[in-house]
Specification:
Helices cover 53% and strands 14% of the residues. The protein contains 7 helices and 5 strands; from the N terminus they run αβααβααβααββ. The protein starts with a helix and ends in a 6-residue tail after the last strand.
Length: 149
Amino acid sequence: MAALASALAGHRLIALDTSVWIYHFEGSAAYGQAADSVLEAIAKGRIGAVASELVLLELLVAPLKKGAQDVADEIELTLVHFPHLQLAPVTRAVLLRAAEIRARYGLRTPDAIMLATAVESGATLAVTNDSAWRKLEEIEVLLLRDLRV
């Protein structure tokens, strides 16, 4: 995917929003291929990635609501052992940065935490499908919809 290679050029560490994982796990017809291409680049070591541990909370709710503990366990194992992905804890520094992001840009708390994690970790690109993230001046944002073929 040439658009992805171009978007990743010049970046060493990218941040992933929960939506990337949702599209991957659900096999989204609209964005699954774009999400899978990003994850493949990470798995093959072409780029490093970081995601807030908050991603676990967001991804596990749906299977747990359905009583699918096995699915929740599989998702957790996938994230914890995904090559070249760091799951970053929600630290005080992240929360303080998230408060600044919420105050300045008016984003929801989970989004502010995700983006604060990205900035605090040194990521220079955030991958999402949420156009509100483009408000941030602190980090470049790539929308998965821009990668669709």
